[in-house]
Amino acid sequence: MKKSKVETAATHRRIVEAATEAFTSNGIHATGVAEIMSAAGLTHGGFYRPFASKEDLVAQACAAGMESTLATIDASIKGGEQAFIDHFEAHLLAKNRAACLGECPLIAMGSELARADSETRRTVTRGYRKLIHAMSANGRSDEGAAMFVFSTILGAITVARIVDDPALSARILVEAQQHIAALWSNPEPQEASG
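Given the sequence above, the corresponding structure tokens read:
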């Protein structure tokens, strides 16, 4: 029996969601198509109807993750300046970092995405540009400052995940949070005193 367009779209969405979760938890290369399809409650044979390849699925999962990240940032911007600042501080100081990682593919899979195919990198680049535009559109910073803040968050979370010392990991995140808070509190460059 042929599936309806609604059922097909729901199945597609379920596969992309399962892939996003698996890629952020286990990494792109450590996650197989069969594992993703099983997590979505489907058989491996149904994979190639909606997706040309695993790389196609990676690109779609990244697009979905970037859209989710952008929606969260847009919501925090609409909540006012403090909600916007709180959003980024929450990523750095979250007790459950795994939940934060699932939101943004750049944070969850950054090093693997650097070696991804050109379509995936193009998809992530579009999402990154939208993200930086949204961050700078709040009037507190220009695009350069938004790039700096996001890069600091990305780097701090990545290094904090890598080190094997929990105290050092916590300090990396707190230092990043404090420096970002200082930047957002005082966005105007200080003139050198002479």
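The chain has a mean pLDDT of 83. Try to locate this feature in the token string yourself.
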